[in-house]
Amino acid sequence: MQKKGIPLPILFLILPLVFHEDTEALIKNMKTTTVLPQVTQHPTKAVDGKSIKGLDILLGLEERCIDYSGITWESINIALSAKFINKAQEKNENFLSFDAIKDLPKDIQPLSGTSSADMLKAAKRLGAWFSKQDIPSTLSILRVQI
Fold first, then answer.
1. How many Å apart are CA 73 and CA 100, to the nearest integer?
2. Full strand arrangement of the beta sheet holding 6-7
3. Which end of the chain is more exposed for a tag (fewer CB within 10 A), N or C?
4. Lowest mean pLDDT among 20-24, 57-61, 109-113
5. CA distance to 28, 84, 112, per residue, from 106 (Å)
6. For the whole model, what pTM was predicted?
7. What dihedral angle (degrees, nearest 10) is formed by the CA atoms of 60, 112, 75, 82?
8. pLDDT in tens, 36-57
9. Closest CA to 58 of 115, 16, 121
């Protein structure tokens, strides 16, 4: 599948996934070449001494998306203003799409080994996966509606 920008509706999935401790723990060390279905169907895995199932990331995801919708809008506005994300050149399935800059400027990068750095790693992996996936497939895999 060809890499493309992430459609606006899909951006609303990122914070609810990376702010969910078990999900972030499962995703942060996976390869960006892993595809989304492999994540959600991942068997039980020991992460930081805790057993996490891939299906655990789906529990309560739609409710978390609703809960995080306000902060997601604010985050998108800040990221656009700071030029951390840019409008993609091509429309993605009739939605406005966005590309992230490759790396954050050094002066605002989180310290390695911190929870912020782990969340950023997880967010980068999600961005890589979401950019290769179409909207209906993504929503079906994650069992959410928009």
1. 16
2. 6-7, 97-100, 85-87
3. N
4. 109-113
5. 20, 13, 12
6. 0.76
7. -160
8. 777 777 666 666 677 777 677 7
9. 16
